[in-house]
Amino acid sequence: MAVSLFSRPLIICRLAATGSSGQGNGHHVLEAKFIHRAVDLSDKSAGISSPHPNFGCVIATPGGNVVGEGYLYAQGTKPAEVQAVEMAGAEICRGATAYLNMEPGDCHGDHTAISALVEAGIARVVVGMRHPLQHLRGKAVRALRSQGVHVDVLGEDLHSKVIEEAQKSCRLVNAHLMYRAASRVPFSTLKYAMTLDGKIAASSGHASWISSKKSRSRVIELRGRSDAIVVGGNTVRRDNPRLTARHGGGHLPMRIVMTQTLNLPEEANLWDTSEASTIVVTQRGARRSFQKYLVSKGIEVVEFDILNPRDVMEYFYDRGYLSILWECGGVLSSSAISSGVIHKVFAFVAPKIIGGTNAPTPVGELGMVEMSQALDLIDVSYEQVGPDILVSGFLQPIPDLTPVIPSLDETSAIDPTVTLHEPKIIFFYKTWDLYGAFSNFSPHPIRMPEDSGDYVTWPSVEHFYQAHKFIGLENKQSQKYVEEIRDAKSPEEAARIGRLMQRRHPDLVRPDWEIIKINVMYRALKCKFSIYPHLNSMLLSTVGSVLVEASPHDLFWGGGREGEGLNYLGRLLMQLRSEFLGEYYKSGESTILSA
Fold first, then answer.
1. What is the DSSP string of 356-400?
2. From residue 424, how far is each of 416, 417, 548, 579 by CA, in Å?
3. Pick from 22, 74, 389, 454: CA 20 to 30 A from residue 344's CA?
């Protein structure tokens, strides 16, 4: 296998309950195990059907026994959730938990997957990641919650190291969908085989065979997982490839030839469309007579005003392709890398040396003159395949499509006062800004109850938040940190002490901090906006607007530089705004909105 946010106010309470129920790291290990199993299941259809979003479902009883499994074989077939419910049986499903590697992608009014879980009496659903496509993201999560199903999303409602690893596996198995959603081009992998001295052919152009038979079998597997395979004109002329998956049936990828001049031979294996189809993309007006010849052979010819990899990939994006495998030579590969359309690399390195000053290399000129300009692979892995070594890694990081500044649909679900038509966005960050009072650092003391029943005054929300990293531990050093933070002269100093101590002494931070920190912030904010009427009025004056904490570096509480942050602070404020608004309407004090 190749795989080596918030909703309603109820979620905050559920999150806190989960953190205080004693479900520690051992529980998360079990949760991660089931998610990994869902990932493995979801990958089973690769190479059988045309690549599609990979869905897997595992149903487990409260005792931790797996009773149902399923995976989506192909688009339009029975959903993984339905298969898992049918395997388990309705009686066993009642009160059980369903583990999904990705949020269901019901669309066009088809809610089969959601209905199957709800009608079977599934009590809880754990989702590995939200759907990467904007028009589907969050819809199934909201639908399930609206039916009373407890939904936890990895990275949002569940946090730990093992959870992060499980979440990463969910992203990897659907990397093609995530890249496509983020970059609006298909997920592209560059594959090549080279000798130990970096040659993909001899000086004469002869290249059969550099890699071993086992490596070539892996390439066939890669082809079967792809929507299409791209080669250039040189590859067609020199190698006369077939580019078929040759795995005994099932999905056959489209074969794409990129050539500016259309200087191609009349006889080529790619012109035989009895096994697989071929598309030739070329410059507008190139060899019109040869274009007609190709069309007569059943080849589709597509012209571009200017032929470059970016335009070609955007075209195939529009055609609905998810993943592309590039098996081209050095000239085209360098052009594709320079265009930013290559996301991953598979390099088979054979223990052979062929030499040759003019022997071709896998990547041509990139214009780099210093080693510091070299492109580094991310998440690199090494694998021995027969006598060869397979080096693989990402040229571009997998996009994090966790909901950031909430989508309009999601924001509307949090706060119905936000319309779906051009909502106003209010940014806040520093306390001296127009809406600076929304910041945790604003000088508004809060009086909060302690476990003992006594009330303690904190100089700011930030003081309260930072101190609670260490509260609850019967440790003198932790208690000392709490006192230092409470006595800090400013919110900035409180933040500095809290963050520094957390980095230096992570063992003194309460073990459930990542689970409860949202609830800690929520309680502090609710107190702040409840005891200061003018702050309450300011918050309610933003009705209909999206609130975004404009921190460029805090990707959890803030929105980030490019909107890549989770913006949890803005989300909590919008949630509180909705709660306060409901209270005013109940008490008949809605005139506050006109103030």
1. -TT---SS------SGGGPPPPEEEEEEEETTEEEEEEESSPPP-
2. 14, 12, 11, 20
3. 74
Q: In sequence order, what E strands does 224-362 have?
A: 228-232, 254-259, 278-283, 300-304, 323-326, 344-350
- What's this model's pTM, rounded to 2 decimal places? 0.65
Does residue 81 carry a catalytic annotation?
A: yes
Query: Average pLDDT over the chain, rounded to whole?
Result: 84
Model pLDDT for residues 109-163, shown as the tens digit of each residue: 467 889 999 999 999 999 999 988 777 788 899 899 999 999 999 988 888 889 9
Fold of the 9-173 domain: Cytidine Deaminase; domain 2 (3.40.140)
Structural domain boundaries of the chain?
9-173, 178-394, 408-594
CA distance 269 to 238: 12
**Structure tokens belonging to residue 160:** 């730990």
Other CB atoms within a 10 A radius of the CB of residue 205 amount to: 15
The active-site residue, picked from 81, 103, 327, 549, is 81
**Using CA atoms, how far apart are residues 395 and 345, in angstroms rounded to an integer?**
7
Task: Find the helix or strand (DSSP H, E) in which 455 lies.
Answer: strand 455-458
Rounded-to-integer distance, Cα 222 and Cα 486, Å:
57
* Beta carbons of 354 and 195 less than 8 angstroms apart: yes
pLDDT, tens digit, for every residue of 295-331? 999 899 999 999 999 999 998 888 878 899 999 998 9
- Tell the CATH superfamily of the 178-394 domain: Dihydrofolate Reductase, subunit A (3.40.430.10)
3-state secondary structure 92-122: HHCCCEEEECCCCCCCCCCCHHHHHHHHCCC
3-state class (DSSP) for residue 318: helix
Percent of the chain with pLDDT over 70: 86
Residue 62 has pLDDT above 80, yes or no: yes
β-pair partners for 546 = 425
Top-level class of domain 408-594: mainly alpha
- Determine the straight-line distance between the first and last CA of the chain, rounded to whole angstroms: 61
The most confident of 85-89, 111-115, 452-456, by mean pLDDT: 85-89
Determine if the peptide bond prior to 326 is cis (ω within 30°): no
Which of 101, 71, 103 is closest to 87 using CA atoms? Answer: 71
